[in-house]
Design brief:
By secondary structure, the chain is α+β, with helices and mostly antiparallel strands. It contains one helix and four strands; from the N terminus they run αββββ. It is elongated.
Length: about 100
């Protein structure tokens, strides 16, 4: 990300949290043809850098839902060090088939 000082970009860390949370939404989609769309990202805080080769661990949870919208919070760690925390939301939408 920076010449001579590689770090994992923050947007990539946010995406890792989002994809980790989507695993929690699998039951909500009941195995049907749905797509979770990222609808919001709030209160993002970067606490420590993540560098290539680090093992990045996520802790995510759904905090509430209303209709097709799901709200979540997530944290990312390297070892015991908190590197990122964020709140985010998704909308689950049934995929439309083109025939």
């Amino acid at each position: 990300h920076f010449p001579g000082n590689p770090v994992v970009p923050g947007v990539i860390q946010c995406e890792i949290l989002a994809q980790s949370t989507c695993v929690l939404l699998a039951d909500e989609m009941n195995g049907e043809d749905f797509t979770p769309y990222y609808t919001g990202l709030d209160n993002v805080r970067f606490k420590n850098p993540v560098v290539p080769g680090d093992t990045f661990r996520t802790e995510c949870e759904i905090t509430k839902s209303k209709g097709p919208f799901y709200f979540a919070t997530g944290k990312g760690y390297v070892g015991d060090k908190l590197c990122i925390k964020a709140d985010f939301s998704f909308a689950i939408k049934k995929n439309e088939r083109e025939d």
